[in-house]
Amino acid sequence: MRTYNFYTYILTNYGKKVLYTGVTNDLERRLYEDYFGLGTQYAFTTKYKCYYLVWFEWHQYINNAIGREKEIKGWLRAKKIKLIAEENAEWRFLNKDIMEWPPVKVIE
């Protein structure tokens, strides 16, 4: 039986003032895309330079990951901060745990 990987995650900017909650099936790729602004110039993560990972959780099913993302997005900031602090009290940037950081841009 095939195992799937989906992640609900929270990013912040360097000053830890902005929070962004998202969902992906490839956390490394998503961090790379956000760091280099490979979405659109109007993307939230590009505009606010949110590419520092402070929290994430794994899901086997996409519906669970999306449901969790929606749940967290509905929370007040204080509740999101509490969630992050439960797993990452120092608000350490977790990017290096996932990939080479800072990433090197691949030229195609």
CATH level 1 name: Alpha Beta
Biggest sheet: strand arrangement:
2-1-3
User: Residue-averaged pLDDT, rounded?
Assistant: 94
Q: Encode the helix/strand succession as letters.
A: EEHHEHHH
Here the CATH topology equals GIY-YIG endonuclease
Give the overall form: globular
- Poorly predicted regions: none
Radius of gyration: 14 Å
Can you characterise this structure?
Helix content is 37%, strand content 19%. The protein has 108 residues and is of the alpha+beta class. It has a single domain, classed as GIY-YIG endonuclease, CATH 3.40.1440. The protein has a 3-stranded antiparallel beta sheet, sandwiched between helices. The protein is globular and about 40 Å long. The model has no long low-confidence stretch (mean pLDDT 94).
